[in-house]
C-alpha cells in the first residue's frame, strides 16, 4: 500500500481544492473570487494525475519493486533519511496530513487574531476629494471605504450622512472596540486591516459579525496618524452571519 502514497496525496489535495471551490464558497476564506476557475482547473488536474498514478502503479510490471535508496536495488544507503521508492521521497507523505485536514476540516477565515497582529498599515494616499456618495440614508459602505473618506477626504463627504458598516468585532487594550475587515488583494497571505472605532453602544464579543449604523465623528487632522482609526457614533448594532466572502478589496 505504501507505493500508492504519492497517488493518494494527489487525490486528497485535488479533492480538497475541488471541495472548497466546486461544492461551496469556502475558497473565499483564502483567495479572491476571481481565482476560482484556476483553482477548479488545478484541483481537477491533481485528481486526474492521482488517478493516472494509481493506474500506472498498479500495472503488473510495477509490482514487487522494493523501496531502496535512490531507486537502485541493493545500492548502499549513503544518504540516510532520503529514501526514494516508487512513491517518491518518504518525507513528502507528511503532506497527506494538511491535505486531509483541508478536505475534512477547512480552516476558518482570518479574524481578530490576524487583525490585532496587523500594524496600522494604510495606503500611501494624500488628502483629496472622493466621488459623491449615493443619495439616501443610510448609505452602505465598506469599512475600507469609510476609513479612506474619514481620514483623507478634504470635501468631508461623510458629514451629516448616516452610514452602515458590516464587519467583525475586535477590541483594543484601552476598552475601545472596532468594526474590522481584512482587505485582500489576491489571497489571505497579503491581508491588511481596516477598522473603525465604534462609540455610543456596548461592544459585542470578539469576532462577532455585526452591522453598525451611525454617523461620522471627526478625529484628528486629515491625513495624519491621529485621524486613524476613524470614529463612528453608532445608533444601532445588529448581529449578522459572516458573509460568504469575508474580505474586502483594497
TrEMBL record:
The chain crosses the membrane at residues 35-55. The keyword Coiled coil does not apply. Residues 64-80 have a biased composition (Basic and acidic residues). The keyword Membrane applies. Pfam families: DUF1980_C. Residues 150-247 form the DUF1980 domain. Residues 60-88 are annotated as: Disordered. Keywords: Membrane, Transmembrane, Transmembrane helix. NCBIfam families: TIGR03943 family putative permease subunit. This is TIGR03943 family protein. It comes from Streptomyces phaeofaciens.
Amino acid at each position: 500500500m505504501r507505493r500508492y502514497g504519492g497517488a493518494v496525496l494527489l487525490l486528497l489535495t485535488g479533492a480538497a481544492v475541488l471541495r472548497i471551490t466546486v461544492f461551496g464558497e469556502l475558497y473565499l476564506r483564502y483567495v479572491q473570487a476571481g481565482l476560482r476557475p484556476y483553482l477548479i482547473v488545478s484541483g481537477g488536474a491533481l485528481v486526474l494525475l492521482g488517478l493516472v498514478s494509481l493506474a500506472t502503479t498498479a500495472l503488473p510490471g510495477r509490482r514487487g519493486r522494493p523501496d531502496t535508496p535512490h531507486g537502485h536495488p541493493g545500492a548502499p544507503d549513503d544518504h540516510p533519511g532520503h529514501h526514494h521508492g516508487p512513491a517518491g521521497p518518504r518525507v513528502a507523505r507528511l503532506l497527506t496530513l494538511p491535505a486531509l485536514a483541508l478536505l475534512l476540516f477547512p480552516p476558518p477565515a482570518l479574524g481578530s487574531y490576524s487583525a490585532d497582529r496587523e500594524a496600522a498599515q494604510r495606503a500611501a494616499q494624500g488628502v483629496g476629494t472622493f466621488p459623491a456618495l449615493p443619495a439616501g440614508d443610510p448609505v452602505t459602505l465598506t469599512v475600507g471605504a469609510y476609513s479612506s473618506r474619514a481620514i483623507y477626504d478634504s470635501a468631508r463627504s461623510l458629514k451629516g450622512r448616516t452610514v452602515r458598516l458590516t464587519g467583525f468585532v475586535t477590541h483594543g487594550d484601552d476598552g475601545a472596540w472596532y468594526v474590522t475587515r481584512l482587505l485582500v488583494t489576491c489571497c489571505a497571505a497579503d491581508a491588511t486591516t481596516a477598522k473603525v472605532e465604534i462609540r455610543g453602544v456596548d461592544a459585542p464579543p470578539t469576532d462577532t459579525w455585526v452591522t453598525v449604523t451611525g454617523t461620522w465623528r471627526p478625529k484628528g487632522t486629515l491625513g495624519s496618524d491621529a485621524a486613524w482609526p476613524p470614529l463612528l457614533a453608532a445608533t444601532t448594532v445588529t448581529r449578522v452571519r459572516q458573509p460568504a466572502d469575508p474580505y474586502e478589496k483594497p
